[in-house]
Amino acid sequence: MQIALRTQQLIAYESGVADTADPLGGSYYVEALTDEIEKRASDYIAKIDQMGGSVAAIEKGYIQQEIQESAYRYQKEIEASDRVIVGVNKFQSKEPPPKGLLKVDPKVREMQLKRLAELRTSRDSKRVETSLAGLKKVAQGDGNLMVPILDCVRADCTLGEICDVMRGVFGEYEPTVKV
User: What angle in degrees, to the nearest 10, is found between the helix axes of 159-170 and 125-140?
Assistant: First the structure.
C-alpha cells in the first residue's frame, strides 16, 4: 500500500502532471512544454556561442558556475519546500530505514584482487604492451581513440591501465571553480 501511495505522490508532485487539467488530452500541453524547453535551450546555446563556444565557456569557468548555481538553487527550493521531493521534504516515513542493505562482504575485494592477478598472469603481456602503446600513439595525435581502446580491451588490458595511458597523455581535468 505504501508503494502505491508513494507512486501516486511521485506522479502528482514530481512529474508536474497535476499542473494541467488534462495533461494527455491532446498535444497542446506537451507542445507548449516542448516549445518552452526548445526556446530556453536555444537561448542558452546562443549565450555559450557568444562566449566562443563550449570549450571557451568551460575554460572561463562558466559551465561549472552554472552547475553550482543550479545545484544551489535546487537545494534551496527543496529546503524551502518550493520543490517537493517525496520522502525527502514531504511525505516522510516515520519508520526507521532498514539497516545493512548495502553491506559488501570484504571477501568480494579479495576475490576481485585474485581474479585480477590471475588475469595479469594468464594474458599475453606482449599484446597488452603493444595495444597500450598503440593507444598512447593515437592519443598523442588527433585520431579516433575508439579502435585502440577496443584493441586494449580485447588484449585484456585493465580499465586502470587504459586510464593510466590516457592520463599520461591528457592529464587530469581540473575544473575552474568560481566562488
Answer: 30
Question: Which residues on adjacent β-strands are paired with residue 57?
Answer: none
Q: Say which residue the cell 563556444 belongs to.
A: 53
Partners of 86 in the β-ladder? 90
CA atoms within 13 A on the CB side of 30: 6
Residues 167 and 64: their CA atoms lie apart, in Å, by 21
Instruction: Give the span between the Cα atoms of 63 and 143, in whole angstroms.
Output: 27
Using CA atoms, how far residue 153 sits from 114, 129, 140, 170, in Å, is 19, 12, 19, 20
Q: Would you give the distance in Å from CA 109 to the centre of its chain?
A: 25
SS3 letters across 152-178: HHHCCCCHHHHHHHHHHHHCCCCCCCC
Q: Alpha-carbon distance 15 to 9, whole Å?
A: 9
Q: Which residues contact 104 (CB under 8 A, 6 or more apart)?
A: none
SS3 86: strand
Question: Tens digits of per-residue pLDDT, 19-58?
Answer: 777 776 767 777 888 899 999 999 999 999 999 999 999 9
Whole-structure pTM over 0.70, yes or no? Answer: no
Q: Among 68, 131, 95, which Cα is nearest to 6's?
A: 95
Domain map (residue ranges) of the chain:
2-79, 123-169
